[in-house]
Design brief:
This protein has helices at 44-58, 78-81, 84-93, 117-126, 432-441, 461-470, and strands spanning 3-14, 33-39, 64-70, 101-104, 110-111, 133-142, 145-154, 164-174, 186-195, 201-202, 210-217, 229-235, 241-245, 257-258, 266-268, 270-271, 278-279, 284-285, 320-329, 335-344, 349-350, 358-360, 367-375, 378-382, 387-389, 395-396, 409-413, 416-419. The protein is mainly β. The chain folds into two domains: 3-258, Glutaredoxin; 266-479, Immunoglobulin-like, CATH 2.60.40. The strands form eight sheets. Strands 1, 8, 9, 10, 12 and 13 form a six-stranded mixed β-sheet that branches. Helix 5 (432-441) runs antiparallel to helix 6 (461-470). It is elongated and about 90 Å long.
């Protein structure tokens, strides 16, 4: 008796188009690695090398899908004969002349023995950027019939007229007794069928979504509870695999599942000091406020009205001083994106996981932006020059020449500058209104308040002195609310 682990594969075949050549900006979607595997139940080398290979695959099972075809070189077998047309279609596509062989994402065939863990890792790294194909799947099951609805939507504008969609079925077969002469009892991801047929369905032109409906009637040897669905997009002329998607549920239960869009990230390295907590004797900022920091960014009220969800769990990263708000602007002064970040005692801005830099999602790599750093009770600053991102050299606001305007940062010693303390209402000017805000909070201890300009957790005379020294300091128009 055999246990059957079944894997339903959607195979999307794209002919004659490389989407990377499309001139328009594309949305990229998460992609998994397709491995085409060719084997035979009477092949001695297959039984020798397949186990190690599949152990290497298992280390990344959430990111890999294997499509295994039985060849006919060692004679016809039951597994091969159950769907000869599908096996022959894959074998012919790769011009297979031996086994065991594999192709990673449609590349040239290599032996299973030479497909090491490192080779698989490299293939996975090659698809980190994702795919321009979005795949959505809706499935239903009635009795022994499974209806599979697949929609493929490219994010480019033009599609070759020969692009086609195929749906296939794959099973993992486990036998108590070897079905062949090589002693293997387990056969991974055996290809069972191509739906609606081996010729597939043409994709719509001009980048329009294509929907395909196919029905699979379960044969007696398939366990419906073990069926899984995978989506693959492939260029049939070059064989390059452009998309692979494996939804989470059993086939027949996947409703409204689709490939996740990849949010682009650009890390920007920025450095700044705050005058209030700066300690001239150490050249660093004090971290007395660390135990009072809110776990979520505090800039969700006026005047900032920033609705980001940046947060940390219970304890902030080591050496955290306070939260800051960073703006990225284009050359025209338009704010492209904001991100809240934590400020480290050495001046580096960092993510909530403690990694240096601020990660943006709406910036374009290899373009330049101006940056604004805001703090709850210090005067905001704007970079004098645009910064090419991502940057390997830290942009340092503690250098006065890097800050836009005149007299916009406080000298704190040793050619080092810091954001002016005392702009408690954060309107870009230190006025009597900031004193009023300070006075309303004075005497509060061990807390997180705007009036705490030296960031030690208490509102005292020291905070007043910081404000008094900077009273009448005026920020440039570009940073005022």
């Amino acid at each position: 008796m055999k246990n059957v682990f079944s894997l339903l594969v959607l195979f999307v075949c794209l002919v004659g188009l490389s989407p990377q050549n499309d001139a328009q900006a594309q949305t990229m979607y998460e992609q998994q690695l397709l491995i085409d595997h060719f084997t035979h139940q009477n092949c001695g080398a297959c039984s020798a090398y397949n186990p190690t290979f599949f152990n290497n695959v298992a280390a990344h099972e959430e990111r890999i899908a294997v499509m295994s075809s039985q060849t006919s070189f060692y004679g016809l077998t039951t597994i091969y004969a159950e769907n000869q047309a599908a096996h022959d279609a894959r074998t012919d596509l790769y011009n297979v002349n031996g086994q065991p062989r594999v192709s990673l994402n449609g590349q040239n065939l290599t032996s299973v023995a030479s497909t090491s863990a490192a080779v698989i890792e490299n293939a996975l790294n090659a698809i980190d950027a994702g795919s321009p194909y979005k795949v959505a799947i809706n499935e239903t099951m009635t009795g022994n019939n499974i209806n599979i609805e697949v929609t493929v939507t490219p994010s480019m504008t033009t599609i070759d007229s020969d692009a086609r969609i195929f749906i296939g079925l794959i099973e993992d077969l486990n036998f108590n007794t070897p079905p062949g002469s090589n002693g293997e009892t387990f056969f991974h991801s055996v290809l069972r069928t191509l739906l609606p047929d081996v010729n597939g369905t043409p994709l719509n032109a001009m980048g329009m979504p294509t929907m395909v409906n196919a029905t699979y009637t379960l044969p007696s040897f398939v366990d419906a509870a073990e069926l899984r669905t995978i989506v693959v997009v492939q260029n049939n002329s070059t064989r390059e695999v452009l998309q692979t998607f494996n939804p989470p549920g059993a086939t027949g239960t996947n409703t409204g599942v689709e490939t996740a869009a990849i949010v682009p990230t650009t890390r920007v390295l920025l450095k700044a000091y705050l005058e209030g907590p700066y300690n001239a004797s150490t050249g660093m900022m004090n971290t007395a406020l660390q135990s009072y920091l809110p776990t979520s960014q505090p800039y969700n009220s006026m005047p900032w009205n920033y609705n980001g969800n940046e947060s940390f769990d219970m304890t902030p990263p080591a050496n955290s001083v306070d939260w800051v708000l960073v703006e990225a602007r284009d050359a025209a002064g338009n704010t492209i994106e904001q991100q809240a970040a934590l400020l480290k005692n050495n001046g580096m801005l960092m993510e909530t996981d403690g990694t240096d830099g601020v990660v943006f999602n709406a910036l374009t790599d290899n373009e330049s932006y101006y940056f604004v750093i805001r703090h709850r009770n210090h005067l905001a600053v704007l970079s004098r020059a645009p910064v090419l991102v991502p940057n390997s050299e830290v942009f340092d606001f503690s250098i006065a020449g890097n800050v836009s305007g005149t007299n916009q940062v406080a000298a704190v010693g040793n050619n080092t500058h810091a954001l002016y303390a005392g702009d408690i209402d954060n309107n870009g000017v230190a006025t009597v209104i900031d004193f009023v805000d300070y006075a309303a909070q004075t005497g509060n201890l061990n807390t997180y308040l705007q009036g705490d300009c030296d960031l030690n957790g208490s509102v005292t005379i020291n905070d007043f002195n910081l404000y008094k020294n900077n009273a009448s300091v005026i920020g440039i128009d570009e940073i005022r609310y």
